[in-house]
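Supplementary Methods S3. Complex input for the NAP-bound model.
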Amino acid sequence: MTKIVEISEFGGPSVLKITNKNLEKLKPNEVLVQNKSIGLNFIDTYHRSGLYPISLPSGIGLEAAGEIIEVGSDVKLFKIGDRVSHASMPIGAYAEQQVMPEEKLVKVPDEVSFEEAGAITLKGMTCEYLLHRAYQVKKEHVILFHAAAGGVGQIFCQWARAIGCTLIGTVGSDEKIEIAKENGCNHVINYSTKDFAKEILEITNGKGVDAVYDGVGLKTFEKSLEAIKLRGMFLSFGNASGMVANIDVKKHLAPKAIFFTRPSVFPYTVTRADLELSAGRLFNIMREGKIKIDIAHKYSLDEAQKSHEDLHARKLLGPAILIP
Ligand SMILES: NC(=O)c1ccc[n+]([C@@H]2O[C@H](COP(=O)([O-])OP(=O)(O)OC[C@H]3O[C@@H](n4cnc5c(N)ncnc54)[C@H](OP(=O)(O)O)[C@@H]3O)[C@@H](O)[C@H]2O)c1
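Predicted complex, serialized as structure tokens:
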């Protein structure tokens, strides 16, 4: 038996229920991982609420780090005792133990702790593809990142600083301004009190930014279009305030000939080569000391509901984990 968090209906944080399950026998290519640290991600709330529909009942969570305690008969990449992490389906990381296909796991280097790996594998690989593959950020670029003090935000800011570009971050409260600056933002705007598009046009002498990274979605979409430069890049990668729907190509994109992408970490890590490239770049930049992960909140698995309540209340001041 293993303790897991399960949902059997869509809804608010209260649908997250602790239960004990018998795990099925491993398939030849599967391993059993004893989770040590589980990443809390906004996407978990989309699965829980039904914004991204999943079949029920279901576990929840897509990011964890732990130790392999059993291997299937045909497992080639790993052995018992290996330290691993993942950022992928199958959903079910909120669990003491979890069965995973071996090809979805990456090895965690010795110098990265379980806690760090559980907090950074999904968020860090997201930053990798956002900065290096969905758009190739260069020193000379000026870019905008919304919710810069958040989980993905803090890692993104440090990675952008390592590249050397000019980074403008937005945050929802004054207490988050310093956090965003410390992590690498050159300019920080509180978008709860200021018109961020106007401020950005002032900072960029009317030109606008080369790229907008928008994980906030509905509330920031229109203003982000104002803040982007002619022929700039719009990367819409999340929906913390609601989903952007009904993009009007003529109204939203044509006037400034904007490039628009709606990327996700999963298509960017779908092949083993992509996954190894992304995790490799992430662990390398950590080894170089250019990204340090400051785990802002630790919850027990029993506190899963509270962790989601805090996420919705915008209380989190950085990456958060659940400890099984
Ligand atoms: N596409 C991908 O590959 C991918 C991968 C990972 C994450 N994401 C997306 O990236 C975004 C950040 O994820 P995360 O897990 O690191 O979360 P997070 O940034 O720690 O939390 C979300 C942040 O969004 C801001 N926000 C604005 N309006 C909000 C609202 N109505 N409700 C709640 N939060 C609101 C809050 O920051 P302020 O208070 O500063 O506004 C909040 O802290 C999410 O949209 C997530 O879905 C996408």
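The pocket of NAP is lined by residues 41-43, 122-123, 126, 147, 149-153, 171-173, 176, 215-216, 219, 237-241, 263-265, 311-312, 314, 316 (CB under 6 Å). Residues 114-132 form the longest helix (19 residues).
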